[in-house]
Amino acid sequence: MNIHEYQAKEVLKSFGAPVAMGVAITSASEAEAAAKQLPGPLYVVKSQIHAGGRGKGKFVELGPDAKGGVRLSRSIEEVVANAKEMLGHTLVTKQTGDAGKVVNRLYIEDGADIDRELYLSILVDRSVGQVAFVVSTEGGMDIETVAHDTPEKIVTVAIDPTAGVTDADAAKLCDALELEGQARADGLLLFPILYDAFTQKDMALLEVNPLIVMKDGRLRVLDAKMSFDGNALYRHDDIKALRDESEEDAKEIEASKYDLAYVALDGDIGCMVNGAGLAMATMDIIKLYGAEPANFLDVGGGANKEKVTNAFKIITADPNVKGILVNIFGGIMKCDVIAEGVVAAVKEVGLTVPLVVRLEGTNVELGKKILNESGLAITAADDLDDAAKKIVAAVKG
């Protein structure tokens, strides 16, 4: 689960991290009052969407000369003008795709006198099986660009979970970021704070880009991005309360109600599979034969008829879907249960696109019998290769 920048900063502030004063608003009429709560005279008006690259993004509707999604304002009047122009319009960034995201919230923040911009993130480093800091002196840039052009400027420091961030770890991070004087003293305090926030709140990612050194020598978290491990949210009601469903795909929200692992994609072949590995293989073979998957959907190993029915409904609700491939290997999951769910869903919502079903495993013959006797226009497949060929051919016409 992702949250907005202003929410992430509130989480960090609760742990003692240095963040600027700021006020979130949802209406331009709130902008003046919000700005008056801040010291000024420099303000920053920030679009709040679940995507990076906001500063370099464009409000396409406002023309080619429109400013981006993060704007400096040198007066309260300018704050109000920017708020009116940004709210309700669609911001397109590298991470939103061409469709962009409508800006429904702004964060008006006190400005900062910046001396240096640094990069910091915390994530789970699977290569060592530990939480790790990734830092660079090249803050404010896309970390992918830094990694490609100057990989030597990225330093990774893995943290022993039994010790946490030690003095030696913090010193190593300070050295990597070339922190001196007051900034170094701040860093020695900040890095354990960020690690505690990451681990205590079960985050999957904490990214601070940029972490700034101000002209007075102090460190400040200027931007913050957080995502959380969905499997641990039951432990964090405070974090669950921060969920903004308007930033999520409606089909993904519906899928979460039934504990389905669903991710919307850009293709036109809907997939319903059991097991994440098999789902990835199914998407790969669809691409191999020249088409694109419309989704990743794993119904899980213990799905029942109701779960399968709802999964099918979610797939067919996507107007981009021109065909559906059901690929089930029945181990714990039984093929007859899948077949019953598919038949029930088709009878309830109808079938207007080609449907290819490949079943293998437990009760496979019973599953095939249920499909064959359903009277529905379902194409059976012998194996995954056969299934992919048939659905791609059907969609391509």
From TrEMBL:
GO terms for biological process: succinyl-CoA metabolic process; tricarboxylic acid cycle. Signal peptide: none annotated. PANTHER family: SUCCINATE--COA LIGASE [GDP-FORMING] SUBUNIT BETA, MITOCHONDRIAL, SUCCINYL-COA SYNTHETASE BETA CHAIN. The gene is sucC. Heterotetramer of two alpha and two beta subunits. The keyword Magnesium applies. GO terms for cellular component: cytosol; succinate-CoA ligase complex. Keywords: ATP-binding, Ligase, Magnesium, Metal-binding, Nucleotide-binding, Tricarboxylic acid cycle. Belongs to the succinate/malate CoA ligase beta subunit family. It catalyses: succinate + ATP + CoA = succinyl-CoA + ADP + phosphate; (S)-malate + ATP + CoA = (S)-malyl-CoA + ADP + phosphate; GTP + succinate + CoA = succinyl-CoA + GDP + phosphate. It comes from the Bacteria. It is an enzyme of class 6 (ligase). ATP binds at K46, G53, R54, G55, E109, A112, E117. Pathway: Carbohydrate metabolism; tricarboxylic acid cycle; succinate from succinyl-CoA (ligase route): step 1/1; One-carbon metabolism; formaldehyde assimilation via serine pathway. Succinyl-CoA synthetase functions in the citric acid cycle (TCA), coupling the hydrolysis of succinyl-CoA to the synthesis of either ATP or GTP and thus represents the only step of substrate-level phosphorylation in the TCA. The beta subunit provides nucleotide specificity of the enzyme and binds the substrate succinate, while the binding sites for coenzyme A and phosphate are found in the alpha subunit. This is Succinate--CoA ligase [ADP-forming] subunit beta. Residues 9-237 form the ATP-grasp domain. It comes from Aureimonas glaciei. Its EC number is 6.2.1.5.
